[in-house]
């Protein structure tokens, strides 16, 4: 049985071998927003946002996920998706 997510405190840990897809690019396109603008609104660097967008992040803080959802007016499930391998 594959592990979907491991949670600790206010972080979600995504593992490289996990079938978690990050659809942040899709939401940015739907909202006609550039990554640079989202990074500025979040108060993070464009490089850190890129790491998240490409699925290379090992985790995401719930407060960061909440801020992304507020800015993009979406739900966490619009950004993170579980797929079977």
- Strand segment count: 5
Helix content: 40-55%
Total helical segments: 5
Main-sheet strand order equals: 1-2-4
Share of β-strand residues: 15-25%
CATH architectural category: Orthogonal Bundle
Radius of gyration: 12 Å
CATH superfamily: lambda repressor-like DNA-binding domains
Described by strand count, sense and barrel closure, the largest sheet is:
3 strands, antiparallel
N-to-C terminal Cα separation, in Å?
Answer: 12 Å
Rounded mean pLDDT is 84
> How do the SSEs run, as a string of H and E?
EEEHHHEHHE
List unreliable stretches of 5+ residues: 1-11
CATH C-level name: Mainly Alpha
Structural class by SSE content: alpha+beta
Characterization of the model:
By secondary structure, the protein is α+β, with helices and mostly antiparallel strands. It has helices at 24-30, 35-42, 46-53, 62-72, 76-79, and strands at 6-8, 11-13, 20-22, 59-61, 80-82. It has a single domain, classed as 434 Repressor (Amino-terminal Domain). 45% of the residues lie in helices and 18% in strands. It has a three-stranded antiparallel beta sheet. The protein has a two-stranded antiparallel ribbon with strand order 3-5. Helix 2 packs across helix 3. The longest helix is centred in the last third of the chain and has 11 residues, at 62-72. The radius of gyration is 12 Å and the shape is globular. It starts with 5 loop residues before the first strand and ends with a strand. 11% of the residues are buried. The model is unreliable at 1-11 (pLDDT under 50).
């Amino acid at each position: 049985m594959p592990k979907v997510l491991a949670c600790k405190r206010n972080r979600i840990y995504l593992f490289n071998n996990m079938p978690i897809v990050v659809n942040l690019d899709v939401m940015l396109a739907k909202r006609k927003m550039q990554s640079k603008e989202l990074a500025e609104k979040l108060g993070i660097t464009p490089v850190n946002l890129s790491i998240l967008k490409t699925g290379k992040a090992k985790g995401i803080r719930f407060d960061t996920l909440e801020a992304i959802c507020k800015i993009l007016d979406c739900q966490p499930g619009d950004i993170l998706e579980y797929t079977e391998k």
